[in-house]
Design brief:
The protein has 650 residues and is mainly beta. The protein has a single domain (2-649), classed as Maltoporin, Chain A (Beta Barrel). The chain has six helices and 33 strands. The strands form six sheets. It has a 22-stranded antiparallel β-barrel. Strands 2-1-5 form a three-stranded antiparallel β-sheet, with no helix packed on it.
């Protein structure tokens, strides 16, 4: 045991020493959460032939061969970047690594985030898409060292490089690292971005498999120039032969920087009973049956945001509150979370019920110009449900802030599903209610161009989600509705404001895929309805479609996918972006949308190598120049991209 703790201490000290390198905030050089296509319900025990991912919930198959770089649904590696794939329906500033904002409400809102009651943002989250986060951390168990390399290159010096390596030191200890860097110079002036992500992870278990430990250390660094959008939209919209890099911009010497760190450590111990199990007629072995799990988790996170403008002027900012010649806004926050849990474990020999309870104690700190705010929270968590043993599964759960700065915050959820294993269909019902205090950035902020101090009421949200899925027919239909009272938004002055009225939001999603021999068609349609469009602007209709050929060629030596995909949304008054605060805010002057965004792609797989070639925005130049993603920020022009991924695992 002493050896184990020495390894853990060495693990964190080694990677902690690299902090100055990982958080280099120089602008001179240039969850995207990572997904492994895991069915959420799949929890199995490890075998000798397959690498496995270890999470606090159990073991999950790791199947990288499913990643074929298609630009549609089953390509999380590409589509999770707003710039690479439009399925995520995010509005970015027209370049890889720039701030983004989902135009699907329930992907933007935290209403459906039922796992954690304390997820309210302390600072803005416009770069969160590109960071290694703590919500889906992965550990591994492998019989052989596993290494995966990933590279994308494209126009305008667009590059992405990612490497993952993990191996078991012995049958009871696994360690690994993952590093990613990406960025691009963009098509317009001062669009350069560079983002770096790094994580180191460790998992260990005792020989009797009762004690487990999971550890992570995460570093993220973001550097992005801010140009404030193009100065004159008409130069872009006229469609004349003009070099995009010569179009005047609003901000001539401004940039944003963000750094984020997280350190995670979870220990768990299983309690149960040992039984004798016959191996054959003459041999008996003792088998441990876990009944209860006790766990302790600590998580430390900090965030640091900078916005610097070396040449601010009155044409871009209304107010100069500190310095008329120089802007340097800095926001710093940190959170320390201490959590204890107890839960029963799935076991066919018990009553069929699963129970969970826990306590979370968190310490929050928020610092800005003249602001030093500290507050603590104590949350109680509880859940009860039945096991996944039959066709019907239900769960009740929630959390309540017992004391602290957010005392009275509440989250309660009810989940119910029915599965038919023969037809592979499933019907889900989710009902929830949420009472949440405003985030700190909505409450208080001080910068050179914006200052506010608000006394907002707690936001109340009630939602219902219905979903029906038929795997056999590639069909998925869902409806989500929410009623929100005291909704907080950024008004047309880019200031937080609270609406005391009730806001009703309805979202429906239909996914239907077709397959005939080697021809595939993928379709995703989303519609959204609001009863008050004065406080929230959303497109009423979005659709994504892909037509492709796939199959084995060259005597099954190569698997090929080739086709086109298109994304479209109706016109709406899209939110503008305020660089000084990093927030998106309402505007009612310019509608954008009604523009199809077409891509052509070729993906193929040979052994452990996967390659994709893509022409993004294939139709650029054939339609009117109205392809904005955010007002005054055009989407990128036509560009070529080449990517390759190679897996080494024997």
């Amino acid at each position: 045991m002493k050896t184990l703790f020495f390894i853990i201490a060495l693990f964190f000290s080694i990677h902690g020493s690299s902090r100055s390198t990982m958080l280099d905030t120089s602008i001179s050089t240039d969850t995207v959460r990572h997904s492994f296509f895991l069915p959420e319900a799949l929890t199995v025990s490890p075998s000798s032939a397959t690498p496995f991912i270890v999470t606090p919930d159990g073991f999950h198959n790791y199947n990288p061969n499913m990643q074929l770089f298609a630009t549609f649904v089953n390509d999380q590696r590409v589509s999770l970047f707003p710039y690479y794939g439009k399925l995520n329906a995010s509005s970015s500033l027209g370049n890889l690594g720039t701030p983004s904002n989902s135009i699907i409400f329930f992907r933007r809102s935290s209403i459906l985030e039922s796992r954690n009651i304390s997820v309210a943002n302390i600072i803005n989250n416009s770069f969160d898409t590109y960071l290694f986060g703590t919500s889906r951390m992965r550990n591994y168990e492998v019989k052989s060292p596993l290494t995966e390399l990933y590279f994308i290159g494209g126009d305008k010096k667009e590059q992405l490089f990612q490497v993952l390596h993990t191996q078991n030191i012995n049958p009871y200890l696994n360690m690994g690292v993952e590093y990613r860097t990406f960025g691009s110079e963009g098509f317009y002036q001062r669009q350069e971005t560079k983002i770096e992500n790094f994580r180191a992870f460790l998992s260990a278990k005792s020989k009797d498999n009762r004690y487990r430990i999971l550890a992570h250390s995460i570093w993220n660094s973001v550097n992005a120039n801010e140009n404030g959008g193009i100065l004159d939209d008409s130069l872009f919209e006229k469609g004349e032969n003009i070099t995009k890099s010569t179009i005047a911009i609003n901000l001539l010497d401004a940039h944003s920087q963000r750094s984020q760190q997280a350190y995670f450590l979870q220990q768990s111990y299983d309690v149960g009973k040992s039984i004798s199990k016959a191996i054959n007629d003459s041999a008996v072995k003792t088998v441990f049956i876990p009944k209860h799990r006790y766990s302790h988790t600590i998580l430390y996170q900090n965030w640091s945001n900078y916005f610097i403008d070396n040449n601010p002027d009155s044409s871009n900012y209304v107010l100069f509150l500190n310095d008329p010649d120089y802007t340097s806004n800095h926001t710093y926050s940190e959170k320390f979370t201490n959590k204890i849990d107890w839960n029963t474990l799935n076991d066919t020999s018990n009553t069929g019920m699963v129970v969970h309870s826990g306590l979370i104690y968190e310490i929050n700190k928020y610092k800005q110009d003249g602001i030093d705010s500290n507050f603590n929270n104590l949350f109680f968590l509880g859940a009860i449900g039945n096991q996944h043993l039959g066709k019907m599964h239900w769960k009740l759960g929630g959390g309540y802030c017992i004391s602290g700065g957010n005392q009275g915050d509440l989250r309660a959820i009810m989940h119910f599903d029915i599965k038919d294993s023969e037809l592979h269909n499933q019907f889900n019902i989710d009902i929830g209610t949420d009472r949440r205090s405003p985030s700190l950035i909505q409450t208080i902020y001080r910068g050179n161009h914006f200052q506010w101090e608000n006394n907002f009421d707690r936001v109340r949200s009630d939602y219902l989600k219905l979903a029906y899925m038929v795997k056999k027919y590639r069909f998925n239909l869902s409806f989500t509705t929410a009623q929100i009272q005291n909704f907080i938004y950024s008004n047309e002055l880019a200031l937080p404001e609270q609406d005391s009225n009730k806001l009703n939001v309805l979202c429906g999603t239909l996914v239907k895929d077709f397959k005939w021999r080697n021809i595939g068609i993928k379709n995703t349609v989303v519609f959204q309805r609001l009863d008050d469009s004065t406080v929230l602007h959303l497109p009423s209709f979005l659709s994504y479609h892909a037509l492709y050929f796939e199959g084995w060629i060259f005597k099954k030596a190569l698997f090929l996918q080739m086709g086109v995909d298109v994304f479209f949304n109706t016109t709406y008054y899209a939110d503008e972006y305020m660089p000084a605060t990093g927030l998106f805010y309402l505007q009612s002057r310019k509608e954008i949308g009604n523009y199809p965004y077409l891509n052509f792609f070729i993906n193929f797989k040979v052994n452990q190598a996967r390659v994709f070639f893509k022409i993004a925005h294939l139709n650029q130049g054939y339609l009117e120049n109205t392809y904005y993603s955010v007002p005054h920020y055009p989407m990128a022009d036509r560009s070529f991209k080449l990517g390759i991924s190679w897996l080494f695992y024997d």
